[in-house]
Amino acid sequence: MQIDILSLFPGMFEGPLHESMIGNAIENNVINVDVTDFRDYTTDKHNHVDDYPYGGGAGMLLQPQPIFDALAAVQAKHPAKGRVVLLDPAGVQFNQHVAEDFAKEDHLTFICGHYEGYDERIRSLVTDEVSLGDYVLTGGELGAMVMIDATVRLIPGVLGNAESAPGDSFSSGLLEYPQYTRPADFRGMPVPEILLSGDHGKIADWRLEQALKRTYERRPDLLKGLKLSGKARQMLADIQADEAGY
């Protein structure tokens, strides 16, 4: 996968994109990441990339020209346009399903905003407008890092264990079940006996029940509209009855 990032602060990506999983993916040629400073493409003699909004108002807006020209230069190197993602608080909220969708692409370009916002004409360049959540950051760089991390780990060959990503929280629509490692008893806190039983069927049922219980207690909103098997529906009904004291 080719990942391009348009940003006024390319130095912000130097650490996160060369460490841990993403760094390994780059080193193993699973992905390639290029960061472009779109200030390099401004035609303004003072190197400005922003200006006051027409009609008045607080703050400064990013001008279209530097971003249009920077994106054109990126796409000239990679003719397969792919998805162009605008980081924007007004966009669709990023989640695991969006990450899974992005992971299917061969080319992703992230446009990181700054200042008060974008000239509206910049939106004509993009295929997706995505927000990290219902809050405002200083710029789109941190949001892009999060989205890239969540996306890249889903690409085949990036994680060491092919089963790791499908078992993550949200991949199934549920929060992840509790997990344990050695020792079997740590300071009086033992691992549940069923996990030591070797009975894979019972372990799978326990994990499903625990995932349902954790989701019901912490994120009940995730259960709305979620398609559950008959077994899972019965487990959830039992959990709800226990919580209600029936």
TrEMBL record:
The gene is trmD. Gene3D superfamilies: 3.40.1280.10, tRNA(m1g37)methyltransferase, domain 2 (1.10.1270.20). Its EC number is 2.1.1.228. Specifically methylates guanosine-37 in various tRNAs. GO terms for cellular component: cytosol. Its main location: cytoplasm. This is tRNA (guanine-N(1)-)-methyltransferase. The lineage of its organism: Bacteria, Bacillati, Bacillota, Bacilli, Lactobacillales. GO terms for biological process: tRNA N1-guanine methylation. It comes from Lactiplantibacillus garii. It is an enzyme of class 2 (transferase). One of its GO terms (molecular function) is tRNA (guanine(37)-N1)-methyltransferase activity.
